[in-house]
Amino acid sequence: MNRTRSSLLALALGTLLLTAACAQSAAGGGSAAPTTAPKQAEEKRLLGKWRRPDGGYVLDIRAAAVDGILDVGYFNPNPIHVSQSTWERSGESDLAVFIELRDTGYPGATYRLQYRATDDTLAGAYTQPSVGETFDVEFARLP
Predict the structure, then answer these.
(1) For residues 110-123, average pLDDT
(2) Which of 1, 16, 53, 73 has the fewest CB atoms within 10 Å around its CB?
(3) Is residue 6 located within the same domain as residue 71?
(4) Which domain holds residue 66?
(5) Domain count, the chain
(6) Pair (70, 127) in one structural domain
(7) Which residues pair with residue 128 across a beta bridge?
C-alpha cells in the first residue's frame, strides 16, 4: 500500500511540475532561444531535389531540423550512403550545407555548399579525397 501511495504521489508531483513548466513556457517566461538558433522558415528553403548539371548527381534534401541536422539522399544515379549532413546559418541570412559521403568510390567525399536565394541554387565545393582534388560545383533545384 505504501509503495503504491508513494508512486502515485511521485506521479502527481511530476505532473504538477511539468504543467507548471509548460504554462511558464507558453507565457513567454521560459528560457529564450539562443540568438544564433536558425529560424524554421530559412531551413525549409533547402528542402527538395537538386541536380548537378555536370553529371546528373542528385541531392534529395528531405528534412532540415532546427538543430542543423539534414535528412539527405544522394544519387549517382543509384543511392550513395550519406554519413553526415548538416546545415547552418552563415551570415545574416545565408545558409551553408555540409554533406559527407561514405560508400564505394566515395570514401569521405564532401560537399560544402551555400544556398543562393538570388538564383535558388546550391553552390560550393566538392572534395574527393581519393584523388586529392576539390571541384567547384552547383546544384539547381528540380521542379
Answers:
(1) 96
(2) 1
(3) no
(4) 40-141
(5) 2
(6) yes
(7) 133
